[in-house]
Amino acid sequence: MGREQDLLGLSDGPAIHYLEHGSRSRLIRWHYHPAYELHLIVATEGTAYVGDYEGRFAPYTLMLTGPNVPHNWVTDEACEPAALRDRVILFSEAFVRRCIEFFPSAKHVKSLLLEEARHGIVFSSDLGRALEPYFRRVSDYPGLRRVASFFELVEALAEDGTRRPLSSRPFQASADPSQSMKLHRAVAFIDRHHAGDVSLKAVASRLEMSESAFSRFFHQHTGYRFIEYVNQTRVQRACEKLVGSHEAITEICYEVGFSNLSNFNRRFLALTGMTPREYRMRHRQAPAEL
């Protein structure tokens, strides 16, 4: 669509960024970044992953993730490819805090963005449908007209009484940009090397931290212990392969980084509530439930 962009570097500047992409975009992956992300699905059905939440999405599913909240949206294999699946608005925590300082009476907006968004939030599909024109305005309008459209959109989000949190674990953004970048480096390393022997020692060494200091740092900012996050990443990648390929479950187990099938099955069941075989059968033919 010509609007894809790198998500890095959004934590410091006050700008509002817009992007849109299709169901086969390179941006579709389990990842996290230091920006807020307001995400509207406009085509296809599939599975949403936000922190430790897993659930269905359909057209006009609208979700908000705060800084450092890992997320992904995976379209079902049975769906036809869509040139436009996602409308996305990204904005920094610095921008949010400046807005709150400017409008101190907007306590409902402060709660939405500084507290609730740490878990990820899903809004009503009716609101998602109603707000699609605002995404287009944020995309098309320059300057103050863009900012005004964004404020109207955020106000509507804060007034949605049906919204609900997603992840059971909150994710803590860092007020220090260098800390946010350090966390990004850690998560990016895990993302690249999860299929191998990724260890706490290796990541701590890469960040020039002691193992104990890195362990505390990682848990404080993600809500996960290191090995929990690695297993979550591996299981999430396995979910993608189970739905998007015909590979044998044993092959997928080793490809995503587990060393034996029994451990893979145990971790998968604990995180998804079903076996890999059950997951594959359900999600290849599941209707949307939103």
Short description:
The protein has helices spanning 93-102, 107-114, 125-140, 143-158, 177-193, 200-206, 211-222, 226-244, 249-255, 261-272, 276-284; strands at residues 16-21, 36-41, 46-50, 53-57, 62-65, 71-75, 86-91, 121-123, 164-165. It is α+β, with helices and mostly antiparallel strands and 290 residues long.
Would you give an account of this structure?
The protein has eleven helices and nine strands. It is globular and about 55 Å long. The protein is 46% helix and 14% strand. Mean pLDDT is 87; it is low at 1-14. It folds into two domains: 16-165, Regulatory protein AraC (Jelly Rolls), CATH 2.60.120.280; 177-284, Homeodomain-like (Arc Repressor Mutant, subunit A), CATH 1.10.10.60. A hairpin with a 2-residue loop joins strand 3 and strand 4 (53-57). It has helices at 93-102, 107-114, 125-140, 143-158, 177-193, 200-206, 211-222, 226-244, 249-255, 261-272, 276-284; strands at residues 16-21, 36-41, 46-50, 53-57, 62-65, 71-75, 86-91, 121-123, 164-165. Helix 3 runs antiparallel to helix 4 (143-158) and helix 6 (200-206) packs across helix 7 (211-222). The chain is α+β, with helices and mostly antiparallel strands. The strands form two sheets. Strands 1-7-2-5-8-9 form a six-stranded antiparallel β-sheet. A three-stranded antiparallel β-sheet has the order 4-3-6, with no helix packed on it. One of its GO terms (molecular function) is DNA-binding transcription factor activity. InterPro entries: AraC_XylS_family_regulators (IPR050204), Homeodomain-like_sf (IPR009057), HTH_AraC (IPR018060), HTH_AraC-typ_CS (IPR018062), RmlC-like_jellyroll (IPR014710), RmlC_Cupin_sf (IPR011051), Tscrpt_reg_AraC-type_HTH (IPR020449). This is HTH araC/xylS-type domain-containing protein. Residues 184-282 form the HTH araC/xylS-type domain. Keywords: DNA-binding, Transcription, Transcription regulation.
